[in-house]
Specification:
heterodimer, A: 538 residues, alpha+beta, D-Maltodextrin-Binding Protein, domain 2, Dipeptide-binding Protein, domain 1, Dipeptide-binding Protein, domain 3, seven-stranded mixed β-sheet, six-stranded mixed β-sheet, 21% strand, globular, B: 277 residues, mainly alpha, MetI-like fold, 10 helices, elongated, transport (chain A), Peptide/Ni-bd (chain A), SBP_5_dom (chain A), peptide transmembrane transporter activity (chain A), signal (chain A)
Chain lengths: 538, 277
């Protein structure tokens, strides 16, 4: 009969160690390994994860959303925009129209830059003069073409004289204000690498493109932010961003996590998901240049075949609002239009009327076939496949082609598409309608293929309304944009899909953070860091 | 002892590899009959559901049935890897045979071309080709063949160089056979063993390459069932639906392991040094 051996603890089974030194070494190794396995204690301050690095911290050159949002945190402008996209004073105390071609701004009293120097009307003039200066080479220069000159009335008062009435100007006056000595071409490098502004956070370090550190500015007109330090880290992979949040190594991600992953984050007790109706606009672009899609009845039929509700409910987990216009419902210039709605019977009637009858009944040969281009982004591909199935039920065959973003975007710019999906990141100034649908903005060699009217809509009546809106008063603009939205609803140059909500995942170490509808980072100025002494998670 | 006999008696690895290959081919050929759902079926209400009796391996993005896509994915893998290997082999054997038999400048020119192509990492070149041509099954096959023929060319050239001075080749030449006939009738049949082993090893390579391209969004068109595309889809949902990446990943790993073991067994069986072991 076998005798069961005594069961010893594992440590007892180990061979004896040769010396005390070896024991100390093993103990030290164990401690090091243990420390490596535990999540490191986060440093003081708040860590924000970004999906991509900023292209520049100088707002005059920043073209990416992250670049612009970070630049605005360091050096804000005269104005910013509230969640209804209304311009509200930022560094300015107030502004008014002196006449149809003169706008006056009065600066807040006692404004200072991070270097301690006073922010005056001279700095505002120098900033906008530099933006308009061809020698500086700002890619945003053309936006200031309507500005004739900038006049300094006194230390706190500045006037913009325009060549002609131009209502959308206010959107451009949110540009970052810089110290006058940095505004010229000689200050580009300094401002690009060690920016100075009058914003709520002061630049501290930017050792590489993956890391950026800011510290609160005591002189911020809204009071020193209650965050001891802001560290921005670039984490490109979404799963890694989610894990960083779950492990407590990050405190904030704004619009950087897919709706499908949010349930996993909601379960974590130290995280909260905060949402707000957003101003991003996702749409189905249509090429109106030739073929069946040039017929408005075919475009309307497509619109009737696409059911946005299940996409919003299941793909976006309800974190979006079905769109009827480029402008979101909360926008000051929004007007409700009839829209198309999901109506397959109406789609069939329209296609019959347009001369595309069903050749052999449901399920057989298609009435029409199109190519649907999208980027290789997983979410966009998945949405394209759902739309393909929805359109197939209405007798429209669609071949989905997912292309690398550069190739895809170039095809869209050059008009080499039939259908595509894209998204406007934030719709604030309604003059964007003119950019996207005015016949003068069809991409072509004359505008270096940079026009936004990519479907090539040509509607003289709409052009007149959009042109008039640039020179009208605010109330008149609201009426004119309502007319434009009704006209677009009838023309159907794009099929509005949805406005995605602004979603922030916030750790318990950051209190009072409310996301902006536009995805801006400025709400960090009002947020509060919770330390372990306050009862926050260390 | 014949190679076939040696192979038959070989280890469990050979038997496992053969079994995997048989299951894989059977699954690929009969996927439409084995699959419980249509690969095009979309059901947003069931998106990312865990395994249930209705969906044995759960559902993925847009509510697709993971089991159906794994079964159909075998078909895509078979199509792509089979055609990629056949095309690569055809091109590589032809050019390698010509280089080895003709020698001189032709050999130099062809081998330097092989060197140039080998200097680029194959997957990078394939990525470039599919990025330019766009995602489609035919383009994936073309990309993999374009980068895959060089191995066959080198191997064939080496074999032809060692065989071309053999007595039976000299005899065929003396009897008036032309270079084409000598290559096809005498040299290539005698070089077939190593080439078959090379093809067996190339097959899992092509499967992984197709999966890699699809994982990067440059393989099969969107919606086409593919193991790589399914793993790509699943990586986004690892935290909420790990089954989406897990099952196609297992299928991919098992198939590649099986073919590698089969290749090992074939190599050993063809190797005369294993005679009598």
């Amino acid at each position: 009969m076998d005798v069961l051996p005594d069961i010893h603890p594992v440590t007892d089974a180990m061979p004896p160690l040769p010396s005390r030194a070896a024991r100390v070494f093993v103990l030290a190794l164990a401690l090091v390994l243990d420390a490596g396995c535990r999540a490191p204690t986060p440093a003081a301050g708040v860590t924000v994860l970004l999906e991509a690095p900023p292209d520049s911290l100088d707002d005059r050159f920043a073209l990416t959303a992250h670049g612009q949002r970070l630049a605005q945190l360091i050096s804000p402008g005269l104005l910013t925009f509230d969640d209804a996209s209304r311009p509200v004073p930022q560094l300015a105390e107030s502004f008014r129209d002196v006449s149809a071609t003169v706008v006056e701004f009065i600066l807040r009293p006692g404004l200072t830059f991070h270097d301690g120097s006073a922010l005056t009307a001279e700095d505002v003039k120098a900033t906008f003069d530099s933006l308009r200066d061809p020698k500086l080479g700002s890619p945003k220069r053309e936006r200031y073409e309507p500005v004739d000159r900038v006049e300094v009335v006194d230390a706190r008062t500045v006037r913009f004289h325009l060549k002609r009435p131009y209502a959308p100007l206010l959107a451009e006056l949110s540009a970052a204000i810089l110290p006058s000595e940095r505004a010229g071409p000689g200050g580009i490098e300094a401002q690009g690498t060690h920016p100075v502004g009058a914003g709520p956070f002061r630049f501290e370090s930017w050792p590489d493109e993956e890391h950026l550190t800011l510290v609160p500015f005591e002189g911020w007109h809204g009071g020193k932010p209650a965050v001891s330090r802001l560290t921005f880290r670039v984490v490109r992979d979404e799963t890694t961003r989610v894990l960083e949040l779950l492990k407590g190594r990050a405190d904030l991600v704004v619009n950087g996590v897919s709706p499908a992953v949010l349930p996993a984050l909601r379960k974590a007790s130290h995280l909260r998901v905060v949402t707000k109706p957003g101003t991003g606009f996702t749409y189905l672009g249509i090429n109106l240049r030739e073929g069946p899609l040039a017929d408005v009845r075919v475009r309307q039929a497509l619109c009737h075949l696409i059911d946005v509700r299940p996409l919003v409910e299941h793909k976006l987990h309800g974190l979006a609002e079905p769109a009827s216009s480029m402008l979101p419902r909360e926008h000051w210039a929004f007007t409700a239009t009839p829209g198309c709605g999901y109506a397959p019977e109406e789609a069939a009637r329209l296609l019959d009327a347009a001369g595309y009858p069903d050749p052999d009944g449901p399920g057989g040969k298609p009435r029409l076939s199109f190519t649907f281009k999208t980027s290789t982004d997983r979410f966009r591909r998945a949405v394209a496949l759902v739309m393909k199935e929805q359109l197939a039920k209405g007798g429209i065959a669609v071949e989905v082609r997912a292309l690398e973003f550069g190739t895809f975007f170039e095809d869209v710019r050059r008009g080499r598409f039939e259908l595509f999906t894209l998204k406007w990141a934030a719709v604030m100034e309604p003059d964007l309608l003119r950019g996207a649908f005015h016949s003068a903005n069809v991409p072509g060699p004359e505008n270096h293929w940079g026009g936004f009217n990519r479907g090539a809509l040509k509607d003289p009546a709409l052009d007149r309304v959009l042109d008039a809106a640039t020179q009208a008063s605010r109330e008149e603009r609201r009426t004119l944009y309502a007319e434009a939205q009704r006209e677009l609803d009838a023309d159907m140059p794009v099929i509005p899909l949805w406005h995605e909500a602004s979603v922030a995942v916030v750790s318990s170490r950051l209190a009072d953070f409310e996301p902006s509808a536009h995805g801006l980072l400025l709400p960090l100025a009002k947020a509060r860091e919770v330390t372990p002494e306050d009862g926050g998670t260390p | 002892m014949s190679a076939v006999h040696r192979f038959r008696l070989h280890s469990w690895g050979a038997r496992f590899g053969l079994a995997v290959a048989c299951v894989w081919v059977f699954t690929a050929l009969f996927a439409p009959w084995l699959s419980p759902h249509s690969p095009d079926a979309i059901d947003l209400t069931r998106e990312l559901s865990p395994p249930t009796s209705g969906h044995l391996l759960g559902t993925g993005e847009n509510g697709i049935d993971v089991l159906t896509h794994v079964l159909y994915g075998a078909r895509v893998s078979l199509e792509v890897s089979f055609f990629a290997v056949v095309l690569s082999a055809a091109l590589g054997i032809t050019l390698g045979g010509i280089a080895g038999y003709a020698g001189g400048l032709v050999d130099e020119a062809l081998m330097r071309l092989v060197d140039v192509l080998l200097a680029f990492p194959g997957i990078l070149l394939a990525l470039f080709i599919t990025a330019v041509l766009g995602p489609s099954l035919a383009n994936v096959v073309f990309a993999l063949s374009f980068t895959g023929w060089t191995g066959y060319a080198r191997l064939t050239r080496g074999q032809v160089l060692t065989l071309r001075e053999r007595d039976y080749v000299q005899a065929a030449r003396a009897l008036g056979s032309g270079p084409g006939r000598i290559l096809v009738r005498h040299l290539l049949p005698n070089a077939a063993g190593p080439l078959l082993v090379q093809a067996t090893f190339a097959l899992p390579g092509a499967i992984v390459a197709e999966a890699s391209l699809s994982f990067l969004g440059l393989g099969v068109p969107p919606g086409t069932p593919s193991w790589g595309a399914l793993v790509d889809q699943g990586t986004q949902y690892l935290l909420v639906a790990p089954h989406v990446a897990l099952f196609p990943g297992i299928a991919l790993a098992l198939t590649v392991l099986g073919f590698n073991l089969l290749g090992d067994a074939l190599r050993d069986a063809m190797d005369p040094r294993h005679e009598g072991r």
